[in-house]
Amino acid sequence: MSHHIVEAQDLIFNYPDQTPALAGVSFRISHGESVAVVGANGAGKSTLLLHMNGYLTPTAGRVRIGDFLLTKATVREIRRSVGMVFQDPDDQLFMATVYDDVAFGPLNLGHTIAEVESLVAGALETVGMGHLKDRPPHRLSTGQKRRVAIASVLSMSPDILVMDEPTSGLDPQARRQLINLLRGFHHSKIIATHDLDMVIDICERTIVMHDGRIRADGPTREIFTDSELLESCRLEKPLRMQDCPACGNAPADRPSTIG
Amino acid sequence: MSAKIDRAFYDIGHLDNLAEADTPLHRLDPRAKLLTTAAFIVSVVSFGKYEIAGLLPFFLYPAVLIGLGNLPLGFLLRKLLIVSPFVIFIGIFNPWFDQVVVLQLGAVNITGGWISFISLLLRFTLTVGAALLLIASTGFATICMALDRLGTPRIFTVQLLLLYRYIFILIGEAIRMIRAHSLRSFDRRGKIAYQVFLQMLGNLLLRSIDRAQRIHMAMLSRAFTGEIKVVRQFNFAYREIFFLLGFSALFIILRVTEVTAFLGRFILTLWAGGG
Q1: B126 φ/ψ angles, rounded to the nearest 5 degrees
Q2: Residue A45 CB-half CA count within 13 A
Q3: For the segment A168-191, what is each residue's pLDDT rounded down to a tens digit?
Q4: Would you state the pLDDT for residue B274?
Q5: What DSSP character marks residue B233?
Q6: How high is the pLDDT of residue B1?
Q7: Of A165, A170, A234, A171, which is closest to residue A194 (Cα–Cα)?
Q8: Burial track A72-94 (b if 16+ CB lie within 10 A, e otherwise)
Q9: Which fold has domain A1-66+159-259?
Q10: Among A165, B60, B134, B156, which residue carries the largest CB count within 10 Å?
């Protein structure tokens, strides 16, 4: 059994027009860890994520997932073990019904019909969308689409979940439900996001990116208390850690949920 | 203007709603419905251009389907009305071109042109109505799968499926663009200048290409190797055979015999017998 380790070594990536997107990124994420990747627009978060399952090939540097170095020969196995959830669920849900979409991955992996059925049922059950399996995706709400998008990845039994902005576009309740759902997963998680309050809830570790480099990498709580760091990377403290706008009290003086 | 587009757009989705119902018609294997619809359409269009009487009994089929499937007649008629201008424009000149009088009702001369125009309208109502009924009782995606099972090349069925999946998103994007335009066009009142229209179209194309790229990315992330696989269990049982053969036989009988004339004579005989 492989350990669900994700390791990037000196990743460099230039877009075809030579715009540098990643300028030497290294990190190591160990089994079961939840890591947030935060940073300004254009800091390189999405580009970094696309390296995690071999969609983009680094100009230089290496990616290692579990026991495999990411190469052409291993990309198939890596795509199974790294479930990638995209930002716009409409891009991810391209089949005609929820069921077909969730079955897409398992069918490509060559499972038998009976296995596919149980994998799909299990994945939909996990995200609570079993009752909508015959619906066409265009008739789901954004929150439902996001859940189905996650199910479409879970059905491949990935070891690692990679998500791009999982809470964007959700209403507060759908966002909260999604956070609870993600907290229940035992996969290693890499989440790129601007929703720093969600990061507090889900990720014990945070990587801050700026201009294609890692500016900081450490425990979420330490990173989010470093105002100077956050500001220099065009970020700010999560709302929950800011002073109360009504009474002006610092978060330390009121009952806290951080941690 | 865009409000109208919006409504038409949401109306398309309503067909999907209808297809989700659970009636004897909905439960039938889609292949049976598809083949029966094809047989129906072929029978209807194979009539001569002046045929009216022979077409009338064919309304039995949509009537039975609406009954079996518990489908809303009014909604389907409205759908037909939306498409009808196309057919009306095709046939509207028949009465001018074909002025041979074929029938005289008192002082009114009825020309061949009018007969063929009415025949065209009937055929339009029947064939497009049958297609709408097929979609409303089966769902577009399921029809594609049925086509696939019946041996249509995979590339066509997948194209259809993806087209249907993304047409809503494309229309949604176009609607938002038109809305944004009309909100800032003031005096033009929503009329789009040719130049601007071209730019919007180009913009839409670029967005679509971007989206296509992201979809491909999503496919690759899920072990896509070039062939889209779909599982769908269909069950072609006695019910389906009965439905397909029964209706097909009916269509053939209605096509080759003059049922209307026969019924007419029969009723007249009864009348004469009674009187």
Answers
A1: -65, -50
A2: 26
A3: 989 999 999 999 999 999 899 999
A4: 63
A5: -
A6: 47
A7: A165
A8: eebbebbbbbbbbbbbbbbbbbb
A9: Rossmann fold (3.40.50)
A10: B134
pLDDT, residue A232, reads 93
**Which residues in chain A are closer than 8 Å to B234, comparing Cβ atoms?**
none
pLDDT above 50 for A1: no
User: In whole angstroms, what is the distance from residue B154 CA to residue B159 CA?
Assistant: 8
> How do the domains of chain A map onto residue ranges?
1-66+159-259, 90-158
Q: Please count the other Cβ atoms lying within 10 Å of the Cβ belonging to residue A183.
A: 11
Closest Cβ–Cβ partner in A90, A92, A136 for B16: A136
Contact A189, A159 (CB under 8 A): no
Nearest to A152 among B20, B214, B222 (CB): B222
Structure token pair of residue A41: 């627009």
Q: Does residue B189 carry a pLDDT above 80?
A: no
Q: Where are the domains of chain B?
A: 20-152+235-265, 153-227
- Give dist(CA A192, CA B77) in Å, integer: 50
Q: What digits encode the pLDDT tens for the residues B103-158?
A: 788 888 888 888 899 999 999 999 999 999 999 999 888 899 899 889 999 889 88
Closest CA to B66 of B130, B148, B2: B130
C-alpha dist (Å) from residue A197 to A29, A221, A242: 21, 11, 11
- A16 CB contacts (<8 Å, ≥6 apart)? none
CB–CB of B218 and A94 under 8 A? yes
Interface contact flag, B222 A105, Cβ < 8 Å: yes
Q: Which two tokens stand for residue A99?
A: 């069921």
> Distance (Å, rounded) from C-alpha B195 to C-alpha B98?
43
| Residue A253: other Cβ atoms inside 10 A | 11
Helix locations, B184-237, DSSP H: 194-220
Secondary structure (DSSP) of A61-118: EEEEETTEE-STTTHHHHHHHEEEE-SSHHHH--SSSHHHHHHHHHHHTT--HHHHHH
Interface confidence, given as ipTM, is 0.83
> What average pLDDT is seen over chain A?
90
Q: What is the mean pLDDT of residues B45-60?
A: 90
Span A246-250, mean pLDDT? 79
**Euclidean distance between CA atoms A62 and A10, whole angstroms:** 7
Query: Residue B73's pLDDT band (boundaries 50, 70, 90)?
Result: very high
A interface mutation test: which of B9, B12, B158, B222 has the most A CBs within 10 A? B222
pLDDT at B52: 87
C-alpha distances in angstroms, B262 versus A170, B59, B252?
Answer: 65, 17, 16
